[in-house]
Amino acid sequence: MHVRRxxxxxxxxxxxxxxxxxxxxxxxxxxxxxxxxxxxVVFIDQLGAGIDYQAFTNSKYDATSVVTNxxxxxxxxxxxxxxxxxxxxxxxxxxxxxSSEYRDLSGYNALTFYAKASKDGATLNVAGLGNDNxxxxxxxxxxxxxxxxxQWRRYVIPIPLPARLxxxxxxxxxxxGAENDEGYECWLDDxxxxxxxxxxxxxxxxxxxxxxxxxxxxxxxxxxxxIFSVGGTDQVVSxxxxxxxxxxxxxSVVTVSNGVITVVGQGExxxxxxxGSVDAAGVxxxxxxxxxxxxxxxxxxxxxxxxxxxxxxxxxxxxxxWWAEWSHNYSSFTDFRVAGDDVKAYTSLNYAGIEFASQxxxxxSLTHFHVDVWVPAGTLLFKVKLVDFxxxxxxxxxxxxxxxxxxxxxxxxxxxxxxxxSLDIPLEDFMNGPSGLVQxxxxxxxxxxxxxxxxxxxxxxxxxx
Length: 465
Prior knowledge:
Helix content is 3%, strand content 46%. By secondary structure, it is mostly beta strands.
């Protein structure tokens, strides 16, 4: 997982304390909005006004402290204790320095700081700005794999587009793990926002890729970056798409509003981007397809005869994930609603893993596997695979077994594009043949597949008698 995304997701699980301020009753007519602070200080000898360090989930919560025995200047620095592997207090050091009040940082083009490590060769995983530890940040930007030494060095993180930071609370964040399976210490000092003439020549980049999606869905442009010249040396800043302005070549297929890319119709559109007035390299090709307009047929087996993974009709058993981490990189998944009914939607489907390994399913007394599938016109096939983890119920423990079945226009039942197809498959079909399921007492995975550009909606996924 991308480092920036990993620690953003971790930060989303940490709650914040909200402060409410009640004003006294007075006539404020004619008064304009109060200007936000432009204070550039994050840390100089102590944390800046109103700043709080918030450790990321699973990090060493007490990793940072103010010390006076090491400093670049002044009287103190921030010490960061990076834990050794298997440290019970946390498996990495990381967190966000968050201001209690919003700041206007649009007048600065960089975040600068000094750092040193207790040993040469240490590399800080990531440092950046714009992460307020709520999971809702829009303007996170970071620099990764930052080399450190036992001597103090100055570091510069360019801000992709300062105009976006007119109201920001996420001032600085770091994340670092053990080096060579050893913990160590590093120190940070003079963390401030600056306006530097040495930061020049921004060259934004988006990933060139093709995404198949459907009307009503939003498109994730993925990770983006901008290359800056910092003192004559190129430096890559990874950042969120919120810094960019996106444009669509066909508004009848894809629209862009406030940075959100939405598929609205069928066809193909090119999505490009700009960072301020600078065109970004790369283009996202979006192929829009139709989506179902009606809900899937309501299942009819009595609840006593059903073991359901997903359905609004039956109680569902525990499913660990509908999108296993080993699912194909370019495929994507989202929860969606069709005519008031919950469905699972997969786009650019090559293969996707659905796992229930923590509580495997014993289907020995059941006879059928059922799934309702909706695919748009032009879809050639849809595959379903069941995987059993054997007697011990553990992946690659006792002999695992699996069988994949393919459905297309000439299969039984046939795959019919543009309508809900009910695949009610005898479990014996998964057990026939020399490479089929050996048993079905410890079913742990369901894998669905397409041709790489398949869009598929599924509903009513269950086993039954």
